[in-house]
Amino acid sequence: MPTFLKSRIWIDFSSPEAVNENWERLIRTLFGKPLHEKPELGKPPAYIREETTSPASPAIAKYNALRQAILQNKKGITTYRQDFLDACIEYADALRVRERPEIGSFGERVLEDCGKLKHVRNHIVDWVLIESASSQDQGFDDSLLELLERLLELKSRPPELNSWNDSWFDAHEFFAYETFLYIIAALLKTNALLVLHTVFNSHYLLPETERYREDLFVRFDRFYGTADSLQLVLAPEGKRLFSPAAELTKRQADRTDIPFKSILEAELLILLMALITPDTRWYPQTLYYTRETRQFPLFLRASQHKHFIKLAIITGIDNADVLRESAKNGYSRLGIDQWHNFHFIDSFWRVLNMDKLDTIR
Question: Which of 192, 203, 293, 343 has the greatest number of beta carbons closer than 10 A?
Answer without folding.
Answer: 192
